Amino acid sequence: MTSHIEDTSEFQLRTIDGTLLFVRDWPLPGQVSGEHPALARDGIVIMHGLGEHCGRYAHVARFFNSLGFVVRTYDHRGHGKSGGARGDVPDDEAVLRDARLVINDFARQLSAPPLLLGHSMGGLFAARFAVAGLAPLRGLMLSSPALALRMSALDRMLLKAATALIPGVGISNGLNTRYLSHDREVVKAYQDDVLVHTKISARLLGSMLKSITYVAEHASELKIPVLLAVAMDDRLVDPAGSRSFSTLLEPALATSHFYDGFYHEIFNEVDADRVFGDVHSWLGQQQFMPAPFSTV
């Protein structure tokens, strides 16, 4: 998805190192982003996965709009329309610093801290962001988060060598896109998308592995409601990481849905209505649903 999306606001935020992040805001129907600053508004930030971009979440953003939420999506550095070498980060904290910039900027428009939704790699970094308490959040939603990766001893040995020799060089991420979704049109659209790339550097992978360790060690410290939505036939990340994560959370704060037979992209699966329904129910149960919007 390369062109402007109707009824959205697109702009850039400059990070501390000068990298420009592409941001797309989704105001409520009939609103223009920035209108009615005195109105109470509830917001959601979406963090996308490895190699993709925020344009692939248009249907998710519109779903939240239909419930009364304003939505912010953005492209991670090295992805989509944002700056930076494809699939690379300068250090282990870069994605988290970027997220804090984006979230804090968005929060100034809202009447309460936003909710955060992350998918896959975005889910991993969203979990780390929330666990570390890097900015106020009302709740956390994780979609097939990369809380565990299937890596052999050889993979780890190669990562160690790449980290020493070519830390910033993007190599193939090895994702088998056939297993994104059972919907072949979704897979084809991903494969044909000019903003999708297949790169990952040793630095980015290293940052992900350190985030996996951090989340596992500190998950019990999370004090906000969490919705965990996991594809159990996931071939791209290991769902065992989500199972383990769910056991570390305070039971009163955790809601988990494990979808048997689903591939990785649960919001793009043929039975995605189940997922959207579960998200809707959770928002209601947590009393996160916005009050009816009015321009009067």
Rg, rounded, reads 18 Å
State the major sheet: 8 strands, mixed
Give the helix level as a range of percent. 25-40%
The CATH C-level name is: Alpha Beta
Q: Order of strands across the widest beta sheet?
A: 1-2-4-3-5-6-9-10
Q: Determine the number of helices (DSSP H or I, runs of at least 4 residues).
A: 8
User: In angstroms, what separates the terminal alpha carbons?
Assistant: 35 Å
Count structural domains.
1
What structural class results from the helix and strand content? alpha/beta
Helix-strand sequence? EEEHEHEHEHEHEHEHEH
What is the averaged pLDDT score?
94
Silhouette: globular
Strand segment tally: 10
Low-confidence stretches are none
Proper CATH architecture? 3-Layer(aba) Sandwich
The CATH homology group name: Alpha/Beta hydrolase fold, catalytic domain
